[in-house]
């Protein structure tokens, strides 16, 4: 992508994130680095999808934020609700796409010559480059679906159910699904798919038509948000506060402790506190569902990576 376009847009997004406090300082640095990597791709699609995802995600976070803050609680003892996103969260959502961009650069170098990008997507001129680009688009279709599903689904008037057992669970439970959340996820995936199709150069006789690309990406994104729920239901511990009945969230998507002094090797944690902010409070928190294996960021990265690879495999199968 041309630097004359990417640089000012990146600066505008950095200023927006700083003024609206949607990212932490390290989160802003991580986002700027990610944007720089995406801008090195010869196609404008990776950089545009990154910006689209950022705007969709931050907008969804702000929707009825005051209401969402009352539905869960923070492990610090304060009201819940998504705060400024951290650098770990940025990399969890965009890390796999960044790796695919860097892989494209490693294979073909930086530039706009015919060796680095196909004249027409899916025309067979550069199959590997097209498949890598499809993996990047699949990444953002999935993370956009998951983000909107989480941020807007929690506002559902109906109580969510655990995807594995259909047991009613409190809002914010890992693996909890609702019709409103599912619909929001499909909408987020469709938004990324439509943006991708608008920017793709698809020629007659190619292995994928624009309508096929839209349906494929929307399907992959929808499957991604369901996969995230499954992974969350099995591999994430949803901690509930017995006194309030609310799900306890760790800042920045980290794990929540249920036992004073508990620690997880290699993972940031937040100490348990009681209702008055004192560390090592009473044992009022219990795991309501799931297993304490991964935190939210690790699940997001795993899901995005699986769906990116899934998009590449699907493209290969269609091509074949």
Automatic annotation (TrEMBL):
Native species: Capronia coronata CBS 617.96
Transmembrane regions listed in the UniProt entry: 27-56, 90-111, 176-200, 212-235, 299-319
Protein name per Swiss-Prot or TrEMBL: TIGR00297 family protein
Pfam families: DUF92
GO cellular component entries: membrane
Membrane topology, as annotated: Multi-pass membrane protein
Record keyword Transmembrane helix present: yes
Keyword annotations of the record: Membrane, Transmembrane, Transmembrane helix
Region feature Disordered, mapped onto this chain: 261-284
Extent of Basic and acidic residues compositional bias: 271-284
Keyword Metal-binding part of the UniProt annotation: no
Subcellular location: Membrane
Record-stated family: Belongs to the TMEM19 family.
Top-level lineage group: Eukaryota
InterPro entries: DUF92_TMEM19
């Amino acid at each position: 992508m041309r630097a004359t376009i990417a640089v000012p847009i990146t600066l505008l997004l950095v200023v927006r994130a700083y003024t609206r406090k949607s990212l932490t300082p390290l989160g802003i640095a991580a986002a700027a680095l990610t944007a720089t990597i995406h801008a090195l791709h010869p196609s404008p699609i990776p950089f545009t999808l990154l910006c689209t995802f950022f705007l969709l995600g931050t907008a969804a976070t702000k929707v009825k934020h005051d209401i969402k803050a009352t539905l869960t609680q923070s492990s610090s003892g304060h009201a819940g609700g998504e705060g400024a996103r951290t650098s770990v969260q940025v990399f969890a959502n965009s890390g796999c796409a960044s790796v695919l961009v860097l892989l494209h650069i490693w294979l073909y170098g930086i530039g706009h010559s015919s060796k680095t990008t196909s004249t027409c997507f899916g025309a067979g001129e550069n199959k590997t480059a097209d498949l890598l680009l499809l993996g990047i688009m699949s990444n953002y279709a999935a993370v956009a679906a998951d983000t909107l599903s989480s941020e807007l689904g929690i506002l559902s008037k109906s109580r969510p159910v655990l995807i594995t057992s259909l047991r009613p669970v409190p809002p914010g439970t890992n693996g909890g699904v609702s019709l409103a959340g599912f619909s929001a996820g499909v909408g987020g995936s469709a938004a990324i798919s439509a943006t991708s199709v608008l920017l793709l150069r698809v020629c007659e006789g190619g292995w994928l038509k624009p309508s096929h690309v839209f349906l494929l990406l929307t399907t992959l994104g929808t499957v991604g948000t369901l996969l995230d729920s499954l992974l969350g239901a099995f591999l994430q511990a949803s901690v509930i506060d017995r006194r309030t009945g609310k799900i306890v969230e760790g800042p920045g998507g980290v794990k929540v402790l249920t036992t004073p002094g508990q620690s997880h090797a290699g993972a940031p944690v937040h100490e348990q506190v009681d209702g008055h902010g004192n560390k090592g409070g009473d044992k009022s928190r219990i795991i309501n569902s799931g297993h304490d294996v991964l935190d939210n960021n690790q699940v997001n990265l795993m899901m995005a990576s699986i769906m990116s690879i899934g998009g590449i495999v699907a493209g290969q199968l269609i091509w074949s």
